Amino acid sequence: MDTILILTILVVVFALAFDFINGFHDTANAIATSVSTKALPPRTAIILAASMNFIGALTFTGVAKTITKDIVDPFQLGNGSVVILAALIAAIAWNLITWYYGIPSSSSHALIGSVAGAAISAAGFNILNYQGFIKILQSLVLSPFLALAVGFIMMTIFAFIFKNFNLSKTNKGFRTMQIATAALQSYTHGTNDAQKAMGIITMALIAGGFQTSTDIPMWVRIGAALSMGIGTSVGGWKIIKTVGGKIMKIRPVNGAAADLSSAIVIFGATMLHLPVSTTHVISSAIMGVGSAQRVKDVKWGVAQRIVLTWIITLPVSAVIAAIVYQILNLFF
């Protein structure tokens, strides 16, 4: 069998594996608040998240096209299949390491950093599409701050509207609302995160000469959506614990405000065809909600640990991918 075909098949397998891991790594964030407030039983929350992720993944392709063409030009990428395979191996490795330790790191940062690192290792810094790459970095960096602000504003509005309401009745109402906000957040997660693997597979198809446009084939969309849905059904309990309880003590009103805030930010990015880290956005929205209630309620030590992981993920994954590329290049 032709070497390029073998490499392309390997890329597809690893990309779908990345989406599967993304499903139980990142989707845990989308249902963390509803599980921690007991708005939804864990099993029900996971089924809901898996279903909404699948639907969301099939709805849009703008982010996938951004990933395909804005980090590096797939039409100019020599030895492209090996570059992409190295990037996927590095991103998966970093995701599994952070999942093992229960740290909500960013799959988006890991994947984008890995693609850049492997491409630079193969062809030098000039291979990067700097305009597109900087645009992606800006969206990754700015979105958590935006989520923090939206979370703060959303919680302030909720506190003002419901300040004279009966607490137990309000909590019951917000628990019901959390079912809808968890579904919405899972849907928006699918519209943004599942598309990253779609973009990577399309890159490999172009680099291997199997496709001549940046359009996302339907089989790629369905495969990525299914992989993420199945990954979601496995669940990510370590990360649910961190996001759902270790940043702050979450009540139903906090959970609903955080879910709604992060869904607005993620869906806004999807409409602009920009990849964002759902992990960053959800964690930041929770911090914003907590700050609006009482700054001391936020466990800033845990928040610092999460932020540190955000900062190191992109460069560390880039270095891992560069090393993996050099190893793979010995064989291919």
Automatic annotation (TrEMBL):
Main location: membrane
Superkingdom of this protein's organism: Bacteria
Membrane-crossing segments per the record: 46-68, 80-102, 108-128, 140-162, 218-240, 252-272, 307-328
One Pfam family linked to the record: PHO4
Keywords associated with the record: Membrane, Transmembrane, Transmembrane helix, Transport
Localisation per UniProt entry: Membrane
Membrane topology category: Multi-pass membrane protein
Protein name: Anion permease
